[in-house]
Amino acid sequence: MAASGETTAAANRAAAGAFMAALGAAGVRDACVTPGSRSTPLTVALAEQSGIRPWLHLDERSAAFFALGLARATGRPVALVCTSGTAAANYFPAVVEANLSRIPLIVCTADRPPRLRDMGADQTMLQAGMFGPNVRWAADLPVPSSAAYEAPQFGTYATRAAAAAAGPLPGPVHLNFPFEEPLIGAATRVHDEHRLPDSREFPSPGIFAPPEANVAAATEMLRRAERPLIVAGPEAEGLPAAALVALAEAIQAPILADGLSGLRCGPHDRSLVLDSFDAVLRADAADGLVPDCVVRLGAKPTSKALNQFLARQRSAAHILCELPGGWRDPDGLSTVVLAGTPLATVAALQRALPRRARVGDWAARWRAADAAARGALQSCAAGFQDLFEGRIFSELQALLPAGATLMAGNSMPVRDLDSFLASDAKALTLTANRGAAGIDGVTSSALGAAAAGQGPVVLVIGDISFYHDLNGLWAAARHGLDLTVVLVNNNGGGIFHYLPQAAHEEVFEDWFGTPTNLDFSLAVRMYGGRHTLARDWPTFRDAVSGFEQGGLRVVELPTNRVRNTDMHREAWAAAAVAVRAALATTPPAPELTHAT
Ligand SMILES: Cc1ncc(C[n+]2csc(CCOP(=O)(O)OP(=O)(O)O)c2C)c(N)n1
Ligand SMILES: [Mg+2]
Q1: How do beta strands 255-257 and 273-274 pair?
Q2: Does 436 contact ligand 1 (Cβ within 6 A)?
Q3: Ligand 1: which of 65, 90, 302, 495 to mutate, judged by most atoms within 8 Å of the beta carbon?
Q4: Residue 276 and which of 40, 182, 479, 538 are 20 to 30 A apart at CA?
Q5: Model-level pTM?
Q6: Tens digit of pLDDT for each residue in 263-307?
Q7: CA of 559: how far to CAs of 392, 408, 447, 565, in Å?
Q8: CA neighbor of 407 nearest in space, from 469, 346, 490
């Protein structure tokens, strides 16, 4: 017997209300919502409760990247709600990024009921499971009916979704909600039982210690090592800085700290934290810097020179520290994998390893090379007459207050951050959408970080990437967000000048250089922001400082792609000379006394 219209609408309302209430009870505080009809029960349920803040967006791709930035900054899952059809497909890039950079998102897509799928109904496509292996968990929910058991069941879906997004390997989950019409009935408020409880905590992903046998194997490797090295790759949450430097100190291992590892900046002891290894390894003078044991944490590092160097160290022992279920070892180097929470893993190693005396001059040698490279890079960056893109990060490091977030777009900004942002006591959160390294959605993720309200957020982004997500700027004025964008306008894809295609003049500019030729000031004005063109560093400093002004501020630096490539090469060459000179006057690393 067909349910009456009122019954269907009431069932939709009860199901969506129970779902949102349970989501709130599971600790979710934010949801990004875009308009549409089929999602009406979910949107109304969100609007009628007060525990989850709904953030209105108009473009689903931007909404999802905004949610990603917000979830990364708060460490809590953010929900997404959209209508059926291509709206859901627009979530895909951010779902991919959330999967790879391990950020919890709860993706809710509205759908037609199964009887209408693949039957030519409008705005209908096959949505159940549409994100495939890119989500931690996916469910096609039942069509709400008036059955008494059902509303609580919708609550259970929310609880389970939050738990699956939490981890141990955090990531996106997808819930597909089929709704029958009428989607909404007479205006009645959500039933009292859907009120949120007072205390609500996001389910902890738990603390996992790696299996003892694996710790014992890794400990043995480290005990025998004469040239131990720690490689700290990008990690969205940041790696446990204090514990990691304590381990490094105990085993006298230099830490090659990626700009996105969470180790570069902060009050922890940074004497073994190295920041210029990319330039050191480009110098081709790494003979005395070859490790016999490598401890790896985080994702694959940003530095290509470091990745190539590591891939060559096949005779060294490689200890891969990963979350349970994760496996970030594209070169297949790991000798032992320690599956656990980073802090628990590092603590387990430290407990098992006695503190040891300095191992010859191994760490000193790395430190000398790193310091020489740093000095050369800094003096080059400061000496160039033309606007050098690498200098942006040292300029910003001086201007930003402690606690600020500095986000780098993909392409050259994130690489320049890695090369030119020196290790420093001032605590800055350094971040990027590095999982899939897309140039899409970057501005939206920065606005999501700004929405977390944890201090000033500055985004450094290339012109093509900025163009890619102009739609994202709409959220700035709509939600009164404060964001400073440093727009590195080299009129095209600067990164391609470093690749072999740069030598193919006949195709390069049209297909790789790809000038944008846009007057970005007009776009910034359209979205209610303030635009400054900075042709020199004093103007840049003036425009960037004054964070208290708030709002959307875009400081555009007009740079030259060809000249910037040359300046980068000059800086690396100067660093190479400095590294070789430093290594020539530093005692050699210990000869290896054992085969690894
Ligand atoms: C979504 C997506 N499309 C294409 C690419 C390939 N890609 C990588 S860098 C780049 C050019 C980026 O140019 P811009 O943002 O101006 O930065 P610049 O290289 O000038 O530093 C492109 C197209 C990508 N990473 N992601
Ligand atoms: Mg560019």
Answers
A1: parallel
A2: no
A3: 495
A4: 538
A5: 0.96
A6: 999 999 999 999 999 999 999 877 789 999 999 999 999 999 999
A7: 11, 17, 25, 11
A8: 469
